[in-house]
Design goal:
The complex is a heterodimer of chains A (321) and B (362). By secondary structure, chain A is an all-alpha fold. Chain A has one domain. Chain A contains 13 helices and two strands, in the order ααααααααααααββα. A two-stranded antiparallel sheet of chain A has the order 1-2. By secondary structure, chain B is mostly helical. Chain B contains 15 helices and no strands. In chain B, helix 2 (36-48) packs across helix 13 (299-322). At the A-B interface, helix 3, helix 4, helix 11 and helix 13 of A face helix 5, helix 6, helix 12, helix 14 and helix 15 of B. Chain A: Keywords: Cell membrane, Membrane, Transmembrane, Transmembrane helix. Chain A: Pfam families: BPD_transp_2.
């Protein structure tokens, strides 16, 4: 494989890994605070639709992004109400949110655009354009470093850089601030946090809303960065892959970057090569597509390291009376 | 706290949840510029107004009974089986292998063998997540989701590379032999001398589904295993203290659950398509979640909820045919039903409980 091919694959790895990374960090905040969220898929889909639709109508990608994030925040609020205030089953609430998004996006899309649930193609200011980093053009001719800088590091949309910046930011927020300490504590032992006089409910709502913000960005990136417009069911299981990556990363931000980029790489390879010939053994494309899920099951089973979720995850906090 | 009367818990609360879900669905229809009342009329006449409509409604309901029972049995053991979709997909593989293996002499033999094949494959697909939960502590919800995707990829591979007949471009298996064709309800009605539900896919597996309802009721409430499943679901520590093995109960509950989900394939793969196609399950595995929640995990409740969702499915199809409302309206209604009966149950329950408590005090 030559450098150009390798760079192309790595370039699409970053592109395909970005929505996973944003969604994975979203799940990280929520689950670290003790709220499981299998509704990542739905929130991403909703955000993808509203960002694509509003960007198509107004011609402004920024208005689209805002609309996408708002719609995702709204679904987060529903999830918060169900799982924090009304102490409902978090998993069931997540399932409901996935279906809600899957149905509403087509219903509203059909009503607005009559295109069978898709939005018109976005052009110009309607989508995020590539950003050329400083000196990319002039460095282009330098061997090895030049192409790597020009092809791989430069030339992505702003949301890619936001996603990458979100990794150290999340790490700092979780491990170096008081808020982060409390957030992690509320996912491990909410009663202790409550005893210290800190509101469990408010902390959990905050975490769920951060999750909504990040999934909103992930969805907006899908519709306005990665592609030019919304297509029915365009998240295609990415929310679940992000969950898988979260388990892979054992609920930590920096490994989340590694895990999502690994899954991005698998997707990039599966897209590029149909069947992979490993000297006699042919890996079918379906196997490559299933690989992230298989790896997750293997990790969950504790065959490679142990993945222990936050201890208070999945259970609503009931204050003792 | 004063307890609510049983009828309120079993009937009133689910009914209220349902009314709210439908009211919001009505608002959604209004918001996309259609008349909810007209929509309802089209749905009712399209799904229940003719034997043709009923034929489809019952066909869908049959599938939902199987997947609903599957989710319900797991619920009793405190396990949330979200993998019905994958288990039913594998069930389809089981049915196809049985049907294609022999030139079946009579449908009843084929039905018996195919049911066993479907249940075995579905149960096997549920057994892995069950074992991983019981022995290795992996969360069953996450593993069953992963297994849905793995099942889809596996079937895709098998249909494209293994089961596809030579010369065919379709990712689908060969047609099943004549002898494996199940009689439709239309055939059975004709046998009794009247015309009912012509050109509809409702078939004899409806009766198999009803038998399964009865069987699940008997297992859960009339056997020692059922008692252990319920005890385990109510309180795992208490069950362990009483000498119930968590590994054993998790395995049995998930095997039954996966087997039931797999048996759905008898209806859609054997009864309707008569060959195995990609995505034959069409989301019925997920509808099972709504059905089990609405039916309070009781077989009779599951039966009623399946009929409701069968009506929604067929009515929704008619709606898409005659109005500009897309079929996806059903997905929205399904989401609202799951949301209100499953996750926001306390929102409705708390005020009703207060109401009854107030009455009791007076």
């Amino acid at each position: 494989m030559d450098l150009a091919t390798l760079l192309q694959i790595l370039d699409s790895t970053v592109r395909l890994g970005t929505p996973l990374l944003l969604a994975c960090l979203a799940g990280l905040f929520s689950e670290r605070a003790g709220i499981f969220d299998i509704g990542l898929e739905g929130k991403m889909l909703m955000a993808a639709f509203f960002s694509g639709a509003v960007a198509a109508v107004t011609g402004s990608v920024w208005l689209g992004l805002t609309a996408g994030v708002l719609s995702s925040l709204l679904l987060s609020a529903i999830h918060g109400a169900a799982s924090i205030t009304f102490r409902g089953n978090q998993l069931i609430s997540g399932v409901a949110i996935n279906f809600l998004a899957s149905g509403l996006t087509v219903l509203i899309g059909q009503k607005w655009f009559q295109l069978g649930g898709r939005t018109p193609s976005l052009t110009g200011n309607g989508r995020f354009g590539p950003i050329t980093l400083p000196f990319a053009e002039s460095l282009r001719e330098v061997p090895v470093i030049g192409p790597v800088y020009y092809e791989l590091i430069s030339g992505h949309t702003i949301l890619v850089y936001v996603a990458l910046a979100a990794v150290p930011l999340s790490w700092w927020l979780l491990y170096r601030t008081r808020f982060g300490l409390r957030l992690r504590a509320v996912g491990e032992n909410p009663a202790a946090v409550d005893t210290a006089g800190i509101s469990v409910l408010r902390l959990r709502y905050t975490a769920v809303m951060i999750c909504g913000l990040l999934t909103g960005l992930a969805g907006a990136y899908l519709a306005t960065g990665l592609s030019a417009g919304f297509v029915k069911e365009m998240t295609a299981g990415r929310g679940y892959i992000a969950l898988a990556a979260l388990i892979f990363a054992k609920w930590r931000p920096v490994p989340a970057l590694g895990a999502t980029m690994l899954f991005g790489l698998l997707e990039a390879i599966a897209n590029r090569y149909q069947n992979i010939d490993l000297g006699g053994v042919v890996l079918p494309v379906q196997f490559m597509q299933a690989l992230p899920y298989i790896l997750t099951v293997v990790i969950l089973a504790g065959f490679i390291g142990k993945a222990t979720p936050p201890r208070a995850g999945g259970a609503a906090y009931v204050k003792e009376r | 706290m004063t307890k609510m009367p049983r009828w309120a818990d079993v009937a009133l609360i689910p009914l209220l949840n349902l009314v709210i879900a439908f009211a919001i669905s009505g608002l959604v229809i209004l918001a996309i510029g259609e008349n909810p009342w007209t929509a309802l009329k089209i749905m009712v006449s399209g799904a229940l107004g003719s034997s043709y409509g009923w034929g489809f409604t019952l066909y869908y309901a049959t599938s939902f009974i199987f997947t609903g029972l599957a989710v319900a049995v797991a619920n009793h053991a405190g396990l949330f089986n979200i993998g019905g979709e994958g288990q039913a997909t594998l069930g389809g593989l089981g049915v196809a292998m049985v049907c294609l293996a022999l030139p079946w002499p009579h449908w009843s033999l084929a039905l018996l063998a195919a049911s066993l094949g479907a249940a075995a494959f579905g149960a096997a697909w549920a057994a892995i997540p069950a074992w991983l939960q019981a022995k290795r502590g992996s969360h069953i919800v996450i593993t069953t989701i992963m297994f849905n995707f793995i099942a889809f990829s596996l079937l895709n591979y098998l249909l494209v590379n293994v089961l596809r007949p030579v010369g065919s471009m379709d990712p689908a298996s060969a047609r099943f032999p004549e002898g494996a064709a199940l009689p439709t309800l239309n055939d059975m009605a004709a046998g009794l001398g009247f015309v009912w539900g012509r050109n509809t896919p409702a078939n004899v597996s409806l009766f198999l589904a009803l038998l399964c309802c009865l069987g699940v009721w008997a297992i859960i409430w009339k056997t020692r295993l059922g008692y252990q499943i319920r005890a385990f679901g109510k309180s795992e520590p208490a069950a362990v203290y009483a000498g119930i093995s968590p590994v054993r109960i998790t395995m049995y509950a998930m095997l039954i659950s996966g087997g039931l989900a797999g048996m759905m394939a008898v209806n859609n793969v054997m009864g309707e398509a008569e060959r195995l196609v990609l995505n034959a399950v069409e989301g019925a595995g997920f509808i099972g979640i709504a059905v089990a929640l609405m039916g309070r995990s009781h077989p009779f409740g599951v039966l009623l909820a399946s009929l409701l969702f069968g009506f929604l499915y067929q009515g929704g199809g008619e709606l898409a045919l005659w109005t500009t409302i897309p079929r996806e309206l059903i997905t929205v209604i399904q989401a609202l039903v799951i949301l209100f009966t499953g996750a926001l149950d306390n929102m409705v329950r708390a005020p009703v409980e207060r109401l009854f408590a107030g009455r009791g005090a007076r």
